[in-house]
Amino acid sequence: MSVATSGAVRAAAIHQPVSERVFLTAQWRALAMLNWKVPADVLEPYVPRGTELDFHQGETYVSIVGFMFLDTRLLGVPIPFHRNFEEVNLRFYLRRELAGEVYRGVAFIREVVPRWAVSTVARLAYNEQYVCLPMKSKRERYVIERAQSIQAAPKVEYTWRHRGTWCGIHMECEGERQPLIPGSEEEFIAEHYWGYSRQRDGSTKEFRVEHPPWEYWPAASACVSGPIPQFYAPQFVETLSRPPDSAFLADGSEVKVYRPRRLV
Fold first, then answer.
1. pLDDT tens column, 163-184
2. Which residues contact 146 (CB under 8 A, 6 or more apart)?
3. For residue 192, what pLDDT is reported?
4. pLDDT for position 80
5. CB 216 within 8 A of CB 250
6. Helix/strand/coil for 96
7. CA–CA separation, 251 vs 222, rounded Å?
8. CB 256 within 8 A of CB 24
9. 82 backbone dihedrals φ, ψ, rounded to 5°
10. Which helix (H) or strand (E) segment is 118 a member of?
């Protein structure tokens, strides 16, 4: 993540211990982000201790995000048959203030991957709400190994099977890839560099995610398929039963995910 992106690097120097270590490295590519406005009181029960909801122009959001993990390594070691795979998650947005710095982060309602070892490690290390299910993906006009050379607006979909039924998110983009505009809704959704997870004892773990700024394509169309509202918590059925309020596809990059630390 470049210094120009935000105060995240400066905040990390203040907030993280000198012994901070990288836990996972990977490429995150073709990030389809479908976003819904949701009442804050729906999200409040999920807010980890020591954080608060992050608002954009007075609104709180949830997002379903589907993307590719590529060249995944744990503690620098590639795990056979677990290097390249899909993930889809339902997430919302948080903030935390410390010593005058604002840490903008995310928390997850549920995360889906097709690899059992990935879901198990994430639950043990972070207490994230991972489930392991069969998954498929399609990325038309998206050359995932050489994302920087793409010209045409891509079309992507991520699907997973739950209790014999396929759920999915689908997006077709338009126009040219463009940088995130400071203060825009797209920047608010994409530019969060911290993760927070509530632990079984009620405490909170925090971890840092490092990557350069992303660019994105606007979505010409975006939708969900299958019983997605029922797949997540009942509180989100009404929200996820309607079309997303916004959607876009981020190109992605190499990322580093650091070891978690306990806050409170």
1. 999 999 999 999 989 999 999 9
2. none
3. 93
4. 62
5. yes
6. strand
7. 16
8. yes
9. -130, 25
10. helix 116-126
Compute CA distances 26 → 34, 186, 217, 257, whole Å. 22, 23, 22, 9
* Residues in contact with 145: Cβ distance below 8 Å, sequence separation at least 6, in sequence order: 70
Non-local (6+) Cβ contacts of 8 within 8 A are: 1, 103, 104, 193, 194, 208
pTM score of the predicted model: 0.87
State the Rg of the chain over Cα.
17
Backbone angles phi, psi at 207, to 5 degrees: -140, 150
For residues 186 and 238, give the distance between their C-alpha atoms in angstroms, rounded to a whole number.
23
Q: Strand locations in 4-84, DSSP E?
A: 22-38, 52-53, 60-74, 77-78
Q: Give residue 155's identity as a one-letter amino acid code.
A: K
pLDDT averaged over the chain?
A: 86
Amino acid at 17: P
Residue 116, helix vs strand vs coil: helix
Over residues 12-62, the pLDDT tens digits come to 333 444 457 888 899 999 999 999 999 999 999 999 999 999 999 999 999
Here the contacts of 227-233 (C-beta below 8 Å, separation 24 or greater) are: 227/162, 227/165, 227/167, 228/64, 228/167, 228/168, 228/169, 231/110, 231/162, 231/167, 232/90, 232/109, 232/110, 233/109, 233/110
**Domain-by-domain residue ranges, the chain?**
8-133+179-219+244-262
What is the amino acid identity at position 181? I
Task: Specify the fold of 8-133+179-219+244-262.
Answer: Acetoacetate decarboxylase-like (2.40.400)
